[in-house]
Design brief:
Helix content: 25-40%
CATH superfamily: Nucleoside diphosphate kinase-like domain
Catalytic activity: a ribonucleoside 5'-diphosphate + ATP = a ribonucleoside 5'-triphosphate + ADP; a 2'-deoxyribonucleoside 5'-diphosphate + ATP = a 2'-deoxyribonucleoside 5'-triphosphate + ADP
Strand order of the largest sheet: 2-3-1-4
Cofactor: Mg(2+)
Protein name: Nucleoside diphosphate kinase
Order of helices and strands: EHHEHHEHEHH
Number of strands: 4
Keywords: ATP-binding, Cell projection, Kinase, Magnesium, Metal-binding, Nucleotide metabolism, Nucleotide-binding, Transferase
Distance between the termini: 12 Å
Number of helices: 7
Oligomer: single chain
Subcellular location: Cell projection
Bound molecules: uridine-5'-diphosphate, magnesium ion
Length: about 140
């Protein structure tokens, strides 16, 4: 497996947008070579965020999380990228997005799907099929050998 055969859903959270980190974050996915197939700036309503985080609905921080995530625009993206995010900001290593830009677990600037299954659910929640591009990226053969 070349590392980019599955799709993942990535969102730059409202704090990442407000802190002016959109370009910095996209740059990292782009320079790594992951293929971007969908992207939009969207102010999500609380209903969408409740669905997105439905697995966490019984956690005490859920209402605050839903309010925070719908408090400003987010950048929703879909990449061919089968590396899934797994660490909170405190455990994130230097060199990772959260490790380099965040100091605590609540304001952690980026969401990434944690499995193939959640990626598919999240992509379907955030994007219509026609919003997802199907194209060949010419650098793929140079990245994958
Ligand atoms: N979160 C929070 N309070 C907490 C733990 C998490 O507000 O005590 C937020 C945080 O923004 C996190 C999101 O809830 O990114 C989802 O939590 P999860 O444990 O799934 O973290 P992630 O998968 O994003 O690392
Ligand atoms: Mg999670």
């Amino acid at each position: 497996m070349s590392g980019n055969e599955e799709r993942t859903f990535i969102a730059i959270k409202p704090d990442g947008v407000q802190r002016g980190l959109i370009g910095e974050i996209i740059k990292r996915f782009e320079q790594k070579g992951f293929k971007l197939v969908a992207m939009k700036l969207i102010q999500a309503d609380e209903d969408l965020m409740r669905q997105h985080y439905c697995d966490l609905k019984d956690r005490p921080f859920f209402p605050g999380l839903v309010r925070f995530m719908s408090s400003g625009p987010v950048v929703a993206m879909c990449y061919f990228c089968d590396i899934f995010l797994g660490s909170n900001a405190i455990d994130s290593k230097p060199g990772t997005i959260r490790g380099d830009f965040c100091i605590q677990v609540v304001r952690n600037i980026i969401h990434g799907s944690d499995s193939v299954e959640s990626a598919n659910t999240e992509i379907n929640l955030w994007f219509k099929p026609e919003e997802i591009c199907d194209y060949t990226k010419c650098q793929d053969s140079w990245l994958n050998g």
